[in-house]
Protein backbone atom coordinates (compact mmCIF):
# COMPACT_ATOMS: atom_id res chain seq x y z
CA UNK A 1 0.00 0.00 0.00
CA UNK A 2 1.39 3.36 -0.95
CA UNK A 3 2.28 5.66 1.98
CA UNK A 4 0.04 8.68 2.30
CA UNK A 5 1.89 11.84 1.36
CA UNK A 6 2.07 14.53 4.01
CA UNK A 7 -0.04 17.52 3.11
CA UNK A 8 1.92 20.79 2.91
CA UNK A 9 0.07 22.24 5.91
CA UNK A 10 0.95 19.31 8.17
CA UNK A 11 3.98 19.99 10.40
CA UNK A 12 6.89 17.67 9.71
CA UNK A 13 7.40 16.85 13.38
CA UNK A 14 3.73 16.07 14.11
CA UNK A 15 3.79 12.30 14.53
CA UNK A 16 1.12 9.71 14.95
CA UNK A 17 1.63 6.77 17.28
CA UNK A 18 2.07 4.54 14.22
CA UNK A 19 4.86 6.77 12.93
CA UNK A 20 6.47 6.91 16.34
CA UNK A 21 6.62 3.11 16.48
CA UNK A 22 7.31 2.23 12.85
CA UNK A 23 9.03 5.34 11.55
CA UNK A 24 12.74 6.17 11.64
CA UNK A 25 13.91 6.32 15.23
CA UNK A 26 16.84 8.74 14.99
CA UNK A 27 20.02 9.52 13.08
CA UNK A 28 22.09 6.55 14.18
CA UNK A 29 25.36 7.49 12.46
CA UNK A 30 27.08 8.65 15.65
CA UNK A 31 25.96 5.55 17.54
CA UNK A 32 27.13 3.23 14.78
CA UNK A 33 30.50 4.97 14.58
CA UNK A 34 30.88 4.69 18.35
CA UNK A 35 30.20 0.96 18.15
CA UNK A 36 32.69 0.55 15.33
CA UNK A 37 35.36 2.45 17.24
CA UNK A 38 34.89 0.28 20.34
CA UNK A 39 35.14 -2.82 18.16
CA UNK A 40 38.33 -1.55 16.47
CA UNK A 41 36.67 -1.05 13.10
CA UNK A 42 36.42 1.96 10.84
CA UNK A 43 33.49 4.37 11.32
CA UNK A 44 30.90 4.30 8.60
CA UNK A 45 30.55 7.34 6.37
CA UNK A 46 26.80 7.07 6.28
CA UNK A 47 24.05 4.86 7.70
CA UNK A 48 21.50 3.35 5.32
CA UNK A 49 17.93 3.20 6.45
CA UNK A 50 16.99 0.49 8.93
CA UNK A 51 14.74 -1.08 6.32
CA UNK A 52 17.63 -1.72 3.91
CA UNK A 53 20.55 -2.28 6.31
CA UNK A 54 20.48 -6.04 6.86
CA UNK A 55 23.50 -6.12 9.17
CA UNK A 56 22.41 -3.34 11.53
CA UNK A 57 22.18 -4.66 15.13
CA UNK A 58 19.37 -2.67 16.74
CA UNK A 59 19.95 -4.16 20.19
CA UNK A 60 23.57 -3.04 20.05
CA UNK A 61 22.46 0.45 19.16
CA UNK A 62 20.00 0.40 22.03
CA UNK A 63 22.79 -0.71 24.36
CA UNK A 64 24.99 2.12 23.10
CA UNK A 65 22.11 4.49 23.70
CA UNK A 66 21.85 3.30 27.29
CA UNK A 67 25.38 4.39 28.23
CA UNK A 68 25.52 4.73 32.01
CA UNK A 69 25.61 8.46 32.77
CA UNK A 70 26.32 7.81 36.42
CA UNK A 71 29.68 6.42 35.32
CA UNK A 72 30.27 9.65 33.44
CA UNK A 73 29.54 11.63 36.58
CA UNK A 74 31.80 9.45 38.71
CA UNK A 75 34.79 9.35 36.35
CA UNK A 76 36.22 12.87 36.17
CA UNK A 77 39.21 11.78 34.08
CA UNK A 78 37.51 10.07 31.15
CA UNK A 79 38.20 11.59 27.75
CA UNK A 80 35.92 14.01 25.95
CA UNK A 81 34.84 11.62 23.18
CA UNK A 82 33.44 9.14 25.71
CA UNK A 83 31.43 11.83 27.48
CA UNK A 84 29.98 13.14 24.25
CA UNK A 85 29.15 9.66 22.95
CA UNK A 86 27.29 8.87 26.16
CA UNK A 87 25.01 11.80 25.44
CA UNK A 88 24.58 11.10 21.75
CA UNK A 89 26.42 14.28 20.75
CA UNK A 90 29.11 14.83 18.15
CA UNK A 91 32.28 13.93 20.12
CA UNK A 92 34.38 16.32 18.04
CA UNK A 93 32.12 19.30 18.77
CA UNK A 94 31.04 18.94 22.40
CA UNK A 95 33.30 20.28 25.15
CA UNK A 96 33.53 19.80 28.87
CA UNK A 97 33.89 22.62 31.35
CA UNK A 98 37.55 23.34 32.03
CA UNK A 99 39.64 22.77 33.99
CA UNK A 100 37.98 20.24 36.31
CA UNK A 101 35.20 19.37 33.84
CA UNK A 102 32.69 19.81 36.64
CA UNK A 103 30.30 22.53 37.78
CA UNK A 104 30.63 24.11 41.23
CA UNK A 105 27.80 21.78 42.33
CA UNK A 106 29.84 18.73 41.30
CA UNK A 107 27.97 17.86 38.11
CA UNK A 108 29.84 16.89 34.95
CA UNK A 109 29.26 19.59 32.34
CA UNK A 110 28.79 18.65 28.69
CA UNK A 111 28.27 21.39 26.11
CA UNK A 112 26.43 20.36 22.95
CA UNK A 113 27.16 22.05 19.61
CA UNK A 114 23.49 22.76 18.94
CA UNK A 115 20.01 22.18 20.32
CA UNK A 116 18.87 18.57 19.75
CA UNK A 117 15.90 17.77 17.51
CA UNK A 118 12.90 17.17 19.76
CA UNK A 119 11.17 14.79 17.35
CA UNK A 120 14.11 12.38 17.28
CA UNK A 121 14.27 12.44 21.08
CA UNK A 122 10.61 11.43 21.39
CA UNK A 123 11.22 8.56 18.98
CA UNK A 124 14.21 7.56 21.09
CA UNK A 125 12.08 7.62 24.25
CA UNK A 126 9.46 5.38 22.65
CA UNK A 127 12.14 2.99 21.41
CA UNK A 128 13.48 2.78 24.96
CA UNK A 129 10.01 1.90 26.24
CA UNK A 130 9.82 -1.20 24.03
CA UNK A 131 10.48 -4.54 25.82
CA UNK A 132 14.14 -5.48 25.80
CA UNK A 133 15.40 -2.09 24.63
CA UNK A 134 14.82 0.11 27.65
CA UNK A 135 17.85 -0.77 29.76
CA UNK A 136 18.15 -0.14 33.48
CA UNK A 137 17.04 3.15 35.01
CA UNK A 138 19.28 5.06 37.38
CA UNK A 139 18.63 5.06 41.12
CA UNK A 140 19.10 8.84 41.28
CA UNK A 141 19.30 11.82 38.95
CA UNK A 142 22.40 11.79 36.71
CA UNK A 143 25.05 14.20 37.94
CA UNK A 144 25.34 15.73 34.50
CA UNK A 145 24.63 19.27 33.31
CA UNK A 146 24.02 19.87 29.62
CA UNK A 147 24.68 23.22 27.99
CA UNK A 148 24.28 24.87 24.62
CA UNK A 149 25.39 28.35 23.58
CA UNK A 150 24.32 30.87 20.96
CA UNK A 151 20.60 30.08 20.71
CA UNK A 152 18.75 32.72 18.70
CA UNK A 153 15.07 33.49 18.29
CA UNK A 154 13.27 32.95 15.01
CA UNK A 155 10.81 35.84 14.92
CA UNK A 156 8.38 33.91 12.72
CA UNK A 157 8.34 31.10 15.27
CA UNK A 158 7.90 33.61 18.09
CA UNK A 159 4.91 35.14 16.31
CA UNK A 160 3.41 31.69 15.77
CA UNK A 161 3.86 30.87 19.46
CA UNK A 162 2.27 34.19 20.44
CA UNK A 163 -0.80 33.43 18.33
CA UNK A 164 -1.24 29.89 19.66
CA UNK A 165 -0.97 31.01 23.30
CA UNK A 166 -2.79 34.34 23.08
CA UNK A 167 0.12 36.76 23.59
CA UNK A 168 0.41 40.06 21.76
CA UNK A 169 2.82 40.08 18.82
CA UNK A 170 5.96 41.79 20.09
CA UNK A 171 9.76 41.46 20.18
CA UNK A 172 9.72 41.03 23.95
CA UNK A 173 9.63 37.32 24.76
CA UNK A 174 6.71 36.00 26.83
CA UNK A 175 7.78 34.55 30.15
CA UNK A 176 7.01 31.01 28.97
CA UNK A 177 8.77 31.27 25.60
CA UNK A 178 12.28 30.44 26.81
CA UNK A 179 10.88 27.20 28.24
CA UNK A 180 9.89 26.25 24.69
CA UNK A 181 13.16 27.51 23.19
CA UNK A 182 15.35 25.52 25.57
CA UNK A 183 13.04 22.52 26.02
CA UNK A 184 14.94 20.24 23.56
CA UNK A 185 18.01 20.48 25.82
CA UNK A 186 16.02 19.36 28.86
CA UNK A 187 14.38 16.69 26.74
CA UNK A 188 17.83 15.35 25.81
CA UNK A 189 18.63 14.97 29.50
CA UNK A 190 15.29 13.28 30.22
CA UNK A 191 15.74 10.73 27.42
CA UNK A 192 19.13 9.58 28.72
CA UNK A 193 19.01 5.92 29.69
CA UNK A 194 20.11 6.58 33.27
CA UNK A 195 17.42 9.20 33.88
CA UNK A 196 15.44 7.69 36.78
CA UNK A 197 11.95 8.34 35.36
CA UNK A 198 11.09 7.17 31.82
CA UNK A 199 9.75 9.91 29.59
CA UNK A 200 6.84 7.82 28.31
CA UNK A 201 3.91 8.38 30.64
CA UNK A 202 5.60 11.10 32.71
CA UNK A 203 3.26 13.75 34.19
CA UNK A 204 4.17 17.43 34.39
CA UNK A 205 2.76 18.40 37.80
CA UNK A 206 4.20 21.86 38.46
CA UNK A 207 6.25 24.61 36.84
CA UNK A 208 7.96 27.71 38.20
CA UNK A 209 9.41 30.38 35.94
CA UNK A 210 11.42 33.37 37.13
CA UNK A 211 11.96 36.26 34.72
CA UNK A 212 14.86 38.30 36.10
CA UNK A 213 14.53 40.89 33.34
CA UNK A 214 12.73 41.16 30.01
CA UNK A 215 14.43 39.33 27.13
CA UNK A 216 14.17 40.69 23.59
CA UNK A 217 13.96 38.65 20.40
CA UNK A 218 17.29 40.00 19.14
CA UNK A 219 19.28 38.65 22.08
CA UNK A 220 21.31 35.44 21.98
CA UNK A 221 20.68 33.00 24.83
CA UNK A 222 22.86 30.31 26.39
CA UNK A 223 21.05 27.44 28.11
CA UNK A 224 22.03 24.87 30.71
CA UNK A 225 19.90 22.14 32.24
CA UNK A 226 20.16 19.57 35.01
CA UNK A 227 17.91 17.44 37.22
CA UNK A 228 17.70 17.44 41.01
CA UNK A 229 15.65 16.56 44.07
CA UNK A 230 14.38 13.07 43.26
CA UNK A 231 11.80 12.32 45.96
CA UNK A 232 8.89 9.98 46.71
CA UNK A 233 5.31 10.87 45.84
CA UNK A 234 2.08 9.15 46.82
CA UNK A 235 1.76 7.88 43.24
CA UNK A 236 5.43 7.21 42.47
CA UNK A 237 8.48 9.47 42.34
CA UNK A 238 8.97 13.04 41.23
CA UNK A 239 11.94 15.26 40.46
CA UNK A 240 12.78 18.74 39.21
CA UNK A 241 14.34 19.57 35.85
CA UNK A 242 15.99 22.99 35.92
CA UNK A 243 16.53 25.04 32.75
CA UNK A 244 18.52 28.28 32.99
CA UNK A 245 18.81 30.97 30.30
CA UNK A 246 21.69 33.46 30.31
CA UNK A 247 22.66 36.43 28.14
CA UNK A 248 26.28 37.62 28.14
CA UNK A 249 26.99 35.65 31.30
CA UNK A 250 23.98 37.03 33.20
CA UNK A 251 21.15 34.73 34.26
CA UNK A 252 17.99 36.30 32.86
CA UNK A 253 15.51 33.43 33.14
CA UNK A 254 15.06 30.23 35.14
CA UNK A 255 12.48 27.47 34.83
CA UNK A 256 11.88 24.56 37.19
CA UNK A 257 9.61 21.80 35.93
CA UNK A 258 8.42 19.13 38.37
CA UNK A 259 7.69 15.76 36.77
CA UNK A 260 5.96 12.74 38.28
CA UNK A 261 6.79 9.20 37.27
CA UNK A 262 3.80 7.07 38.20
CA UNK A 263 4.71 3.74 39.76
CA UNK A 264 2.67 0.87 41.14
CA UNK A 265 4.60 0.86 44.39
CA UNK A 266 4.42 4.45 45.52
CA UNK A 267 6.63 5.59 48.37
CA UNK A 268 5.16 8.91 49.47
CA UNK A 269 2.50 9.66 52.07
CA UNK A 270 -1.09 9.71 50.87
CA UNK A 271 -3.16 12.81 51.36
CA UNK A 272 -6.42 12.54 53.20
CA UNK A 273 -9.41 13.03 50.89
CA UNK A 274 -11.32 16.24 51.36
CA UNK A 275 -14.14 18.23 49.90
CA UNK A 276 -13.32 20.15 46.75
CA UNK A 277 -13.56 23.90 47.36
CA UNK A 278 -15.93 25.91 45.19
CA UNK A 279 -14.13 27.52 42.24
CA UNK A 280 -13.74 31.30 42.23
CA UNK A 281 -15.90 33.47 40.01
CA UNK A 282 -14.76 33.33 36.41
CA UNK A 283 -13.49 36.46 34.68
CA UNK A 284 -13.38 34.77 31.25
CA UNK A 285 -14.42 31.57 29.48
CA UNK A 286 -12.25 29.94 26.83
CA UNK A 287 -13.35 27.29 24.36
CA UNK A 288 -10.44 24.90 23.81
CA UNK A 289 -10.56 22.76 20.66
CA UNK A 290 -8.46 19.71 19.71
CA UNK A 291 -6.45 21.97 17.44
CA UNK A 292 -4.83 23.47 20.55
CA UNK A 293 -2.99 20.17 21.07
CA UNK A 294 -1.60 19.95 17.55
CA UNK A 295 -0.87 23.68 17.25
CA UNK A 296 1.03 23.81 20.53
CA UNK A 297 2.92 20.62 19.62
CA UNK A 298 4.01 22.34 16.43
CA UNK A 299 5.33 25.50 18.10
CA UNK A 300 6.76 23.81 21.20
CA UNK A 301 8.25 20.64 19.74
CA UNK A 302 6.41 18.61 22.40
CA UNK A 303 4.83 15.91 20.23
CA UNK A 304 3.81 13.59 23.04
CA UNK A 305 0.88 11.70 21.45
CA UNK A 306 -1.31 12.13 24.57
CA UNK A 307 -1.80 15.70 23.31
CA UNK A 308 -2.30 15.08 19.61
CA UNK A 309 -3.74 11.60 19.05
CA UNK A 310 -6.87 9.84 20.30
CA UNK A 311 -5.08 6.51 20.12
CA UNK A 312 -2.00 7.90 21.85
CA UNK A 313 -4.11 9.36 24.64
CA UNK A 314 -5.94 6.06 25.16
CA UNK A 315 -2.66 4.15 25.34
CA UNK A 316 -1.78 6.22 28.42
CA UNK A 317 -5.19 6.05 30.06
CA UNK A 318 -6.87 9.24 28.80
CA UNK A 319 -10.22 8.91 27.00
CA UNK A 320 -9.27 11.70 24.61
CA UNK A 321 -6.27 14.01 24.00
CA UNK A 322 -5.38 16.52 26.71
CA UNK A 323 -3.95 20.02 26.43
CA UNK A 324 -0.28 20.63 27.20
CA UNK A 325 0.17 21.93 30.72
CA UNK A 326 2.55 24.62 29.48
CA UNK A 327 -0.05 25.82 26.98
CA UNK A 328 -2.48 26.26 29.88
CA UNK A 329 0.13 28.22 31.83
CA UNK A 330 1.03 30.37 28.83
CA UNK A 331 -2.63 31.10 28.09
CA UNK A 332 -3.16 32.30 31.68
CA UNK A 333 -0.02 34.43 31.54
CA UNK A 334 -1.20 35.95 28.26
CA UNK A 335 -4.45 36.98 29.97
CA UNK A 336 -2.37 38.86 32.57
CA UNK A 337 0.23 40.15 30.12
CA UNK A 338 -0.47 43.87 30.50
CA UNK A 339 -0.39 43.60 34.32
CA UNK A 340 2.96 41.82 34.72
CA UNK A 341 5.99 43.60 36.26
CA UNK A 342 9.39 43.70 34.54
CA UNK A 343 10.72 40.91 36.81
CA UNK A 344 8.51 38.28 38.37
CA UNK A 345 8.02 34.64 39.30
CA UNK A 346 5.01 32.71 38.00
CA UNK A 347 4.38 29.45 39.82
CA UNK A 348 1.69 26.94 38.82
CA UNK A 349 0.48 23.53 39.89
CA UNK A 350 -1.19 21.40 37.24
CA UNK A 351 -4.23 19.64 38.66
CA UNK A 352 -6.59 17.60 36.46
CA UNK A 353 -5.79 17.36 32.74
CA UNK A 354 -7.66 19.60 30.31
CA UNK A 355 -9.53 17.27 27.90
CA UNK A 356 -9.82 18.38 24.28
CA UNK A 357 -12.28 19.81 23.50
CA UNK A 358 -13.57 21.58 26.61
CA UNK A 359 -14.62 24.97 27.96
CA UNK A 360 -12.43 26.53 30.66
CA UNK A 361 -13.23 29.16 33.25
CA UNK A 362 -10.32 31.53 33.97
CA UNK A 363 -10.21 33.52 37.20
CA UNK A 364 -7.66 36.04 38.51
CA UNK A 365 -7.49 38.04 41.72
CA UNK A 366 -5.02 40.81 42.54
CA UNK A 367 -3.35 40.94 45.95
CA UNK A 368 -1.40 44.16 45.96
CA UNK A 369 1.03 43.85 43.06
CA UNK A 370 0.68 40.06 42.93
CA UNK A 371 -1.90 37.79 41.32
CA UNK A 372 -3.62 34.52 42.11
CA UNK A 373 -5.16 32.79 39.10
CA UNK A 374 -6.79 29.49 38.20
CA UNK A 375 -8.38 27.42 35.46
CA UNK A 376 -11.46 25.30 36.17
CA UNK A 377 -13.89 23.31 34.07
CA UNK A 378 -16.78 25.56 33.11
CA UNK A 379 -19.11 22.54 33.29
CA UNK A 380 -18.44 21.07 36.73
CA UNK A 381 -15.82 23.29 38.39
CA UNK A 382 -13.05 20.69 38.42
CA UNK A 383 -9.63 22.36 38.89
CA UNK A 384 -7.11 22.22 36.06
CA UNK A 385 -4.47 24.73 37.16
CA UNK A 386 -3.78 27.08 40.07
CA UNK A 387 -1.03 29.67 40.08
CA UNK A 388 0.50 32.84 41.43
CA UNK A 389 2.46 35.73 39.95
CA UNK A 390 4.72 37.69 42.28
CA UNK A 391 7.29 40.42 41.69
CA UNK A 392 10.81 39.04 41.90
CA UNK A 393 12.02 39.00 45.49
CA UNK A 394 8.56 38.76 47.03
CA UNK A 395 7.11 35.66 45.46
CA UNK A 396 7.59 31.91 45.55
CA UNK A 397 11.16 30.86 46.25
From TrEMBL:
Domain MaoC-like per the UniProt entry, residue ranges: 284-369
Entries under InterPro entries matching the protein: Fatty_acid_synthase (IPR003965), HotDog_dom_sf (IPR029069), MaoC-like_dom (IPR002539)
Endpoints of the signal sequence: none
Family annotation (SUPFAM superfamilies): Thioesterase/thiol ester dehydrase-isomerase
Domain of life, per lineage: Bacteria
Region (Disordered): 264-286
PANTHER family assigned: 3-HYDROXYACYL-THIOESTER DEHYDRATASE HTDX-RELATED, 3-HYDROXYACYL-THIOESTER DEHYDRATASE X
Family per record: Belongs to the enoyl-CoA hydratase/isomerase family.
Listed name of the protein: MaoC-like domain-containing protein
Organism: Micromonospora solifontis
Organism taxonomic ancestry: Bacteria, Bacillati, Actinomycetota, Actinomycetes, Micromonosporales
Amino acid sequence: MARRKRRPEEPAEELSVHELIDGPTMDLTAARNALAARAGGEPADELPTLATEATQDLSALANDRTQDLSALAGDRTRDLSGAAAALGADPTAATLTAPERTTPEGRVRVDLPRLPAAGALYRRALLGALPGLGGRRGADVPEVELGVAGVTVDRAHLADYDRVCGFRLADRLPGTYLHVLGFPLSLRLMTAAEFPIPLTGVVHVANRITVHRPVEAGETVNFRTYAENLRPHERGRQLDVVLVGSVDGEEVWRGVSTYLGRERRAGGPRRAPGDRPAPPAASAHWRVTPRVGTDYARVSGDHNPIHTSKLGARLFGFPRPIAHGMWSKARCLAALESRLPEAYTVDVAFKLPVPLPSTLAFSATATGADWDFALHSAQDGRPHLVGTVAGEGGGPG
